[in-house]
Amino acid sequence: MINAILFDLSGVLYEGDTAIPGALQSVERVQASSLEIWFITNTSRKTRSKLLDDLRILGFKVNPDQVFTAVDAAKSWLQQRGLRPYCLVHENIQGEFSDFDQCDPNAVLMGDAAEAFSYNNLNRAFRLCLGGAPLVGVGYNRYFNSGSQLLLDAGPYIKAIEFAASVEATILGKPSAEFFHQALASTTAAADQALMVGDDVFGDVEGALNAGIQGCLVRTGKYQTGDECKIRGNFHTVESVVEAVELILGGNC
Amino acid sequence: MINAILFDLSGVLYEGDTAIPGALQSVERVQASSLEIWFITNTSRKTRSKLLDDLRILGFKVNPDQVFTAVDAAKSWLQQRGLRPYCLVHENIQGEFSDFDQCDPNAVLMGDAAEAFSYNNLNRAFRLCLGGAPLVGVGYNRYFNSGSQLLLDAGPYIKAIEFAASVEATILGKPSAEFFHQALASTTAAADQALMVGDDVFGDVEGALNAGIQGCLVRTGKYQTGDECKIRGNFHTVESVVEAVELILGGNC
Predict the structure, then answer these.
(1) Is A178 exposed, middle or buried (0-12, 13-18, 19+ CB in 10 A)?
(2) How far is CA B189 from CA A89, B3, B35, B198, B214, in A?
(3) Separation CA B188–CA A162 (nearest Å)
(4) CB of B157 within 8 Å of any CB in chain A?
(5) Are the C-beta atoms of residues A102 and A129 closer than 8 Å to each other?
(6) Is A46 helix (H, G, I), strand (E, B) or coil?
(7) Which of A102, A176, A184, A180 shows the shortest CA–CA distance to A137?
(8) What are A7's strand-pairing partners?
(9) Is B154 on the interface with A (CB under 8 A)?
(10) Rounded to whole angstroms, how far apart are CA atoms A2 and A252?
(11) CA-based nearest residue to B206, from B182, B177, B178
């Protein structure tokens, strides 16, 4: 019995700047049902406000209070600890961290920085971490589908710094179980009554399963043939978010 | 009883363009002894000929036949298999791979590419590997001392692509046991009669131990306080190559 549904955004509801066929209607069907709904994303190429704008432009009617982002989680984590992060993040979201003292950093924050993942910037992150600065990752995603091609996400670069400095990053966002539980905390559903729908077999599906949440992998976005064989555990694999919603509303989850 | 000594180069015999104090005399002492001597390096920022030139300019008298490089090992590996590598390597050594057909690549070669580790180039490597191209690494070093600062080496970037594409790289060079054994094959010494002297606790010392070779860590080059606690096993830790040679020639190894 599913009481809450957690939707990943990029690759599930849209690819690049195009909605997945049927995604709008599927989200509306869930919104019209008794299910609780959440949108949870590791995206760190857009500000929260741009993310909400883009969803609206695509036609999704989303309550901003139901959007849970890894960038917000990372900001809170750093604020709570009074840290001065070196923010190796995309130029689009640098402004989200303007409240932080970034002089003489004592922490490293890594998101999906794209071209900002230069040799110089990664060396700076590495030397700070080797000197003891905690490493904070916005998600641990390996790659994503930009709409036209697969592109490296933050995960591989976080892995590189972890290896170089022999440290372990604190991951804010999926697949952190804490992140899933924070999203669920404002619903009435228990973990095993919630279903995560995502295109990332590791970040979305394996992460959800490890958090005690049910998982559903869609064959859109970054999905590659055989992804469903890369992890262990029981989960659904469906063509797209449309079939995922059919499954849930049909009581087959 | 040590019969052969394997010297790492950068960080052991020199740092940047300066010889480690006493290194010249120490190498000469070994050359005047009955010990067999090898120089083995993962350096992939210089051609073999530049490497030999730089050693000569610093004053080291080195027989080129006794210099064993990871770049050479990688070239042989690719040639033997008739592969067409995408060479993500330093611009200084691109010419070393001019004999390879690099159109429509079906393999990925990664060395210490420095600024060439751009987002675009890493995405290209990632997509080739995700599509099934074998990933070949020139060493797996985490970082090195450029003379003025620590800089990321090839290892973290290889790790990034391994993670992104869920593949395992074939490492040519240290710490591959095969590489150590190839170097030893042209000596009369058995593995346990050989000693590897290096500044990289993972690549040099742990690698040697895993290949059945004795290990000696020097506190020069990339060495950081506490490095000797990062691996398990019995090995020596000494101030520099001078003390390492004292130890060997004094019969204390």
Answers:
(1) middle
(2) 52, 6, 9, 19, 12
(3) 40
(4) yes
(5) no
(6) coil
(7) A176
(8) A39, A197
(9) no
(10) 9
(11) B177
Q: A152 touching B, CB under 8 A? A: yes
What is the amino acid identity at position B22?
A: G
Q: Give rounded-to-5 percent helix, strand, coil for chain A.
A: 40, 20, 40
Q: Which residues of B touch A230 (CB under 8 A)?
A: 166
Q: Which residues contact A56 (CB under 8 A, 6 or more apart)?
A: A62
d(CA B174, CA B42): 7
**pLDDT value for B127:** 98
* Coil, strand or helix at A153: coil
Q: Which tens digits make up the pLDDT trace of A41-67?
A: 999 999 999 999 999 999 999 999 999
The SS3 assignment for B150 reads: strand
The dihedral built from the CA positions of residue B218, B222, B226 and B228, taken in this order, carries a sign that is negative
B91: contact with A, CB 8 A cutoff:
no
Here the tokens at position B101 are 């057909």
Spatial neighbors of B92 by CB under 8 A, at least 6 apart, are B45, B46, B47, B50
Give the contacts of A170 (CB within 8 A, at least 6 positions apart): A77, A134, A135, A136, A137
| Per-residue b or e along B22-31, where b marks 16 or more CB atoms closer than 10 Å to that residue's CB | bbbebbebbe
Quote the minimal CA–CA distance from A165 to chain B in Å.
Answer: 8
Please, which residues bridge with residue B19 across strands? B14
Cα–Cα distance, B164 to B131 (Å, whole number): 12
d(CA B222, CA B201): 9
What is the distance, to the nearest Å, from the Cα of residue B107 to the centroid of all Cα atoms in its chain? 21
Dihedral over alpha carbons B196, B199, B203, B207 (to 10 degrees)? 30
Cβ contact A176:A143 at 8 Å: no
ipTM: 0.93
Global pTM? 0.94
Q: Could you identify the residue written with the tokens 């924050």?
A: A109
Cβ–Cβ contact A57 with B under 8 A: no
Q: What is the pLDDT along chain B (253 residues), one digit of tens a residue?
A: 899 999 999 999 999 899 999 999 999 999 999 999 999 999 999 999 999 999 999 999 999 999 999 999 999 999 999 999 999 999 999 999 999 999 999 999 999 999 999 999 999 999 999 999 999 999 999 999 998 899 999 999 999 999 999 999 999 999 999 999 998 998 889 999 999 999 999 999 999 999 999 999 999 999 999 999 999 999 999 999 999 999 999 987 7
What angle in degrees, to the nearest 10, is found between the helix axes of A154-165 and A119-130?
Answer: 50
A114 to chain B: which residues are within 8 Å by CB?
119
